[in-house]
C-alpha cells in the first residue's frame, strides 16, 4: 500500500468533521483477507491483486473498485503467482510496455499455499495495458535467519519502495532488516540495505509523514506465537545514515492493520498526523483506531470502525477519483474477523472534509449599461467566498484597454463584500468590455472567477441652451421633479474649462458624479435620474449639488422625494 499520500493525488486534505464516524461502503463481490489495494490515477480505480479467500485458499484474481460508480469488477487478468500477506506499491518503472505503460502496481514477496509457503519474487500489475508479470531479476533480499521472510511491510516514498521486517516460521526468527528498491535502477542493482530497525518484528504498521518513515507496533515471534508490540520508531529518509529513533509508544499493542499518513503542510486537522485503522492482537482483532500527532509526539483515540478486522486492505481515495461515496477518504476493505475462514466483504470509509477554495464575482455593481461621456464612475463589484476557508486574494477590474485596477480582499467562508476600485472617467464614446475577476491561485472552481459585461459611453446628455454666452460661472437653483424622481440642474460656463458636477448626501458622501470633463462656454441643463454610482435609487431626503470649475465652486440644496 502507498500509505504515503502523494502530493499529486491530494493537494488538499482537511480534518474530521465534528462527530464524524466510519461509514459502511459498498460490499465487495469478493471476500479477501491478508491482502491490500491501491488507487491508480491513470484509471481512477482501486486494484486488489488477489488474496486469501474464505476457505483459506489463496486466489490470484485481480479485482477493481470504481469510486465514481461504487462498483466492483473482476478485471479478467490474474497475478502470475497467487499470494497473500502483501502490500501494493505504485511505482514508475522503465520497462516500457506497449503504449508507454510505465506505471505498475508492485507486490514484494508474499505467502503462497504450497510449501515452503514464502516467496521473494516481485510481481507487477500494469492497469493501463492490463498486464501482470513476474520480474526475473532483483528478488527481495530480506531474510530472517537466512530464510525468506513473510509479513514484511512495504511503502513508497519518491518512487522508492521501503520494505522492512517480517518473519520466518521455518526458523522461528523475526527480521529487523530494512531494504530500499529503486525500479529505475539497472537490473540486478535495484535493492540497497538500510539501517536495521531497533526492534525485529513482523507486520510493522508503516506510514510516511513528510520525509519520515514510521514503523508502528508489529509482532515479535516466540514459541510459534505472534506477540503484538506498542513500540514505535521513525527513520528520516533524507538522512538514513543516522538510523532509527524511538517515538511515543502506541496506546495499545497493535499489528496487522493499516495506517494513513498526511504531510504537515496539508491544511486541516490531519496535517502531520497518522491514522491507524483498527487494532490487531493475534489471533484476534478489535474496532479500536488511533491517531498519532507527529508534531507533539502524542497519541489520541480515533473513531472506531464498525467491524473488527485485521489483515485488511487500506486505501486513500483522492478527490481526483471523480466523486462517489466517501471520496475523498480513507478506506478499509475486506480482512479477517475471528478466523481466516471468515473474510469480510463490507468496506468502510472515513470521509475527508476537503477544504474548498472558491472565491467568485457575484455581480458587477458599477458601471452598468450606459454612462454619459465625461462622467466619473467608481467601479464596484460584489465578491463572495464560496469556499470553506478564509481567503486573502486580489480582485481585478478592467474597462476597455485603458483602465484596470486591483484591490485585495480578505473574506471569511460564506462572506460577501463589495470591492471598490479607482474612479474611471468615461472620456471616449463607444462600447467597452467590462471584466471583474478574482485571482486566487488555489481556486478550485475557475468557472465563476469572472463576470464579463459591457458599458456604453453615450454623448453627454446635458443640453447647451441657446441664450448667448454667460459672463460668469453660475449654478442655478435645482429644480426637482417629484413625479419623475429626478432633478434638472442648470449651470453656466463663461469660458472653456474642466468642470465637475457631483451629488452629495447631507453627510458629505459622494452619491454620484454627474459630470467630470471639459466644457465649452455656454449654458447647460443636465438631468440627474436619482440613482447612485451603483445604479441604485437614492433614498428620499436632502442632497447637495456641487458644481466646480476653474476657480469656481457652488453648492445647491436638493430635496428628493419618493
**Mean pLDDT over all positions:** 89
CATH topology of the largest domain: Neuraminidase
The chain-level structural class is: mainly beta
Number of helices, where a helix is a run of at least 4 consecutive DSSP H or I residues: 0
CATH architecture of the largest domain: 6 Propeller
Overall structural domain count = 3
| Uncertain segments | 3-18
Number of strands: 54
Strand content: over 45%
What percentage of residues falls in helices of 4 or more residues? under 10%
Largest sheet: 5 strands, antiparallel
Radius of gyration: 36 Å
Shape: elongated
CATH first level of the largest domain: which class? Answer: Mainly Beta
Organism: candidate division WOR-3 bacterium
InterPro entries: FlgD/Vpr_Ig-like (IPR025965), Ig-like_fold (IPR013783), Kelch-typ_b-propeller (IPR015915), Kelch_1 (IPR006652)
Pfam families: FlgD_ig
Signal peptide: 1-19
